[in-house]
Amino acid sequence: MITHHDSCRMCGSGHCTMFLDLHDQPQANLNLKPDSWLQHPEIYYPLQVYFCHDCNLVQLLDDVSKEELFSEYQFVSSGVGNTPVHFQEYAKFVTEKFLKPGDFITEVGGNDGVLLGEIKGMKTLNIEPAQNIAPMSRARGVETINDFFTCTLAKDVAKKHGKAKVVMGNNSIPHIGAQADVMKGFKELIADDGVGIIQAHYLGYIFDTLGYGDVYHEHMSYYAIRPLIQFYKQFDLEIFDYEMLPFQGVSIRIFFGHKGRHPVSPKVAELANEELAKGWDKLETYQKLAKDVEKSKNKLVGTLTELKKQGKHIAAYGAAAKGVPILNYAGITNEIIDFCVDGLPQKQGLCMPMSHIPIISPEEARTRPVDYYLLLAWSFRDHIAGKEKEFISRGGKFIMPIGEIEIF
């Protein structure tokens, strides 16, 4: 169920160095039934991050099989924080900027169709591998292929539906191990004057916040724009613009198309130069990041341990996948965290992987004593603070699990 690669998944270079080791961990999105680990021990996989000296892609080189990760999937886009609003705005933007009535638009890994369902008057297609999620997309009225995206599938789609004016992958493309094959697929599917759009976590967010919770097995690649510019050139594709978005921390939305078909914004080269100026082409930059991550982890453990000694009740807020690597790297278990509250019904009644912290509903959480919430869904900090004004008014506080471990 796991494959170790000796070469970069983009450029094929064998010159890659591991700089961050978060130790063996389970899948971040695989919550467990209570005590199930007694009958079926959890499976842990190496969680190590590598730097490619040639193209500078930051990546995992240990791939858990895509069937294991995505055939059944617990994350549902429309049930998380302000995500539906984000995709409503996204749909409006794409429609007004790139589409006209009747155009064909497809999304790779569109989850429950929360984005495509908002695009009206167009021919839409979701390519979604999760067997439990694809029916939710169809229920929204979005035509959905329940399969993994490959170049072969892209050719089949183009043959049946024609080329697409817009091909998107939102928080899904870095989850695909075969980066070259997926780009070949985009090239096959994008119309001559069409646009590819990829939205993904931006590497700079990890540097700026020490948000190492974004490192887990699904996230195989960590995007900066410099490696992508060179990578896309291999397929005669060209990045012509980008946006930075305050979504899931910080996301980059990259716009590209066939070479020479779109005017290239000077912003693209400017961002690439900014990344160079920050030393993102040097191994020592990443080695320093790893040391800073370890310091942050140690401070988190010290903070929680001290609060527990004082008799404080500590719970977690949001059974987010990005909280799992942090809990497990820090060795935080249900002996420190009483429970985790999450609004998604499909997570309630389960336990978080490895730490075995029980997940309960907001209604049940309000009946339990809590002095501090460890904010595992920190990307939605403002949204959550707005929802929990009563908790805050009673003197309750939140703990940021990354960076300087702020208590607010």
Secondary-structure blueprint:
Layout: E1 2-4, E2 16-25, H1 36-39, E3 45-52, E4 58-60, E5 62-64, H2 66-70, H3 83-98, E6 104-108, E7 123-127, H4 134-139, E8 144-145, H5 151-161, E9 164-170, H6 179-189, E10 190-201, H7 203-209, E11 221-222, H8 225-233, E12 237-245, E13 251-258, H9 266-277, H10 283-309, E14 314-317, H11 323-330, E15 340-341, E16 359-360, H12 362-365, E17 372-375, H13 381-387, H14 389-393, E18 397-399
Parallel strand pairs: 6-7, 6-9, 7-8, 9-10, 14-15, 14-17, 15-16, 17-18
Antiparallel strand pairs: 1-5, 2-3, 3-4, 4-11, 10-13, 12-13
Helix pairs in contact: 5-6
Structure write-up:
The mean pLDDT is 96. With 408 residues, this protein is of the alpha/beta class. The protein has helices spanning 36-39, 66-70, 83-98, 134-139, 151-161, 179-189, 203-209, 225-233, 266-277, 283-309, 323-330, 362-365, 381-387, 389-393, and strands at residues 2-4, 16-25, 45-52, 58-60, 62-64, 104-108, 123-127, 144-145, 164-170, 190-201, 221-222, 237-245, 251-258, 314-317, 340-341, 359-360, 372-375, 397-399. It contains 14 helices and 18 strands. The strands form 4 sheets. A 7-stranded mixed β-sheet has the order 8-7-6-9-10-13-12. The protein has a 5-stranded parallel β-sheet with strand order 16-15-14-17-18. It folds into 2 domains: 77-276, Rossmann fold; 284-399, Rossmann fold, CATH 3.40.50. The protein is globular and about 65 Å long.
